[in-house]
């Protein structure tokens, strides 16, 4: 559990590789999500790449921020909070992907004009 809580420093090689692969996943899935057709298999694949890559990438990066900017005594509780937010982020993205329109369509909806009644 300590390795997960301190993913930036105590995680070792495995967490560095996970961060690297999450970065590659985000870099690859973003253009796919932009050009994919609505509801298509490519869009769904990008959504599921996002569901894993976003929480992993942000968890490790936020732990680096905790290490860099918080005093030693505050790091433990902050790391628990980061882990909680990472789990909530994963669950939220999966809920949107499995029972909603998907993460890509949700984000695209921010730029769509509302339908006229």
UniProtKB/TrEMBL annotation:
Heme b binds at residue 57. It is found in: Mitochondrion inner membrane. GO terms for molecular function: heme binding; metal ion binding; ubiquinone binding. Signal peptide: none annotated. It comes from the Eukaryota. GO terms for biological process: mitochondrial electron transport, succinate to ubiquinone; tricarboxylic acid cycle. GO terms for cellular component: mitochondrial inner membrane. Pfam families: CybS (PF05328). It is a multi-pass membrane protein. Its main location: mitochondrion. A ubiquinone binds at residue 69. Keywords: Iron, Membrane, Metal-binding, Mitochondrion, Mitochondrion inner membrane, Transit peptide, Transmembrane, Transmembrane helix, Transport. Belongs to the CybS family. This is Succinate dehydrogenase [ubiquinone] cytochrome b small subunit. It comes from Edaphochlamys debaryana.
